[in-house]
Amino acid sequence: MITRTAFRAACKAAKPKQTVPASARSLHASSSQSSDALFVHRDTPYNNSKIPFEFTPDNMKKAQEIIARYPPQYKKAAAIPLLDLGQRQNKGWTSISVMNYIANLLEVPSMRIYEVATFYTMFNREPIGENLLQVCTTTPCALRGGYDILKACEDHLKIKPGQSTEDGKFTLLEVECLGACSSAPMFQMNDDFYEDLTPETTRKILDAFAAGEKPKAGPQSGRHTIENSAGLTSLTSTPYGPGQHCVPEFQ
């Protein structure tokens, strides 16, 4: 018969080696990377709830038209288009006053609007330059020289992503896919896409915007749209007309 002392000794010997609790272990080896997006509001002289904001008469008319698209009990669904309208009126960025105004207009808790504005990167939480330049460096653009385009923008404007030029003309951002993969590399300037870029065409576009001009958007390589750069391989003949190959009774 084993004694109590011997039993305790056996249990202690069989006890597994003490390990670091799972909650204390690091789940990844790489260093944490902070986003350049602003998720938490901190009052500043230029961004606080005491600064008044309201839609202009024209924008209020547009807002009412937007709200009318939704059933009354679901008018909160208008949050995104109304925030976009407010951002455009507020010189391209969404302040706390804009968000509070939209919340009051839609009769929802302010937090519902904060959630939307902090989730979508289309809403700029800090003041931006006259021209918002967003350079795509996701895989298709990266493979076609997207980082060369980004560097050309950095060198020409003398700023880094997340910064604005001293004259307030440009704000530069490095962004994820903008959906123009067939004509990479590309960037978005304000609401327009500029595609098939090279460092040379990039500098020309930047100079034009700096001079107050607006270059023609789209491919900068001579392509009209995004057809094969080597030439058409399909639809090379005139399409046949309606009913041309139908049986006689349907012609």
UniProtKB/TrEMBL annotation:
<dbReference type="InterPro" id="IPR041921">
    <property type="entry name" value="NuoE_N"/>
</dbReference>
<dbReference type="GO" id="GO:0008137">
    <property type="term" value="F:NADH dehydrogenase (ubiquinone) activity"/>
</dbReference>
<dbReference type="InterPro" id="IPR042128">
    <property type="entry name" value="NuoE_dom"/>
</dbReference>
<keyword id="KW-0001">2Fe-2S</keyword>
<comment type="similarity">
    <text>Belongs to the complex I 24 kDa subunit family.</text>
</comment>
<feature type="binding site">
    <location>
        <position position="181"/>
    </location>
    <ligand>
        <name>[2Fe-2S] cluster</name>
    </ligand>
</feature>
<dbReference type="InterPro" id="IPR036249">
    <property type="entry name" value="Thioredoxin-like_sf"/>
</dbReference>
<dbReference type="GO" id="GO:0006120">
    <property type="term" value="P:mitochondrial electron transport, NADH to ubiquinone"/>
</dbReference>
<feature type="binding site">
    <location>
        <position position="141"/>
    </location>
    <ligand>
        <name>[2Fe-2S] cluster</name>
    </ligand>
</feature>
<dbReference type="InterPro" id="IPR002023">
    <property type="entry name" value="NuoE-like"/>
</dbReference>
<feature type="binding site">
    <location>
        <position position="136"/>
    </location>
    <ligand>
        <name>[2Fe-2S] cluster</name>
    </ligand>
</feature>
<dbReference type="GO" id="GO:1902494">
    <property type="term" value="C:catalytic complex"/>
</dbReference>
<dbReference type="Pfam" id="PF01257">
    <property type="entry name" value="2Fe-2S_thioredx"/>
</dbReference>
<dbReference type="GO" id="GO:0051537">
    <property type="term" value="F:2 iron, 2 sulfur cluster binding"/>
</dbReference>
<keyword id="KW-0479">Metal-binding</keyword>
<keyword id="KW-0520">NAD</keyword>
<keyword id="KW-0411">Iron-sulfur</keyword>
<dbReference type="GO" id="GO:0016491">
    <property type="term" value="F:oxidoreductase activity"/>
</dbReference>
<feature type="binding site">
    <location>
        <position position="177"/>
    </location>
    <ligand>
        <name>[2Fe-2S] cluster</name>
    </ligand>
</feature>
<dbReference type="GO" id="GO:0005743">
    <property type="term" value="C:mitochondrial inner membrane"/>
</dbReference>
<keyword id="KW-1278">Translocase</keyword>
<feature type="region of interest" description="Disordered">
    <location>
        <begin position="232"/>
        <end position="251"/>
    </location>
</feature>
<keyword id="KW-0408">Iron</keyword>
<protein>
    <submittedName>
        <fullName>Uncharacterized protein</fullName>
    </submittedName>
</protein>
<dbReference type="GO" id="GO:0046872">
    <property type="term" value="F:metal ion binding"/>
</dbReference>
<dbReference type="GO" id="GO:0098796">
    <property type="term" value="C:membrane protein complex"/>
</dbReference>
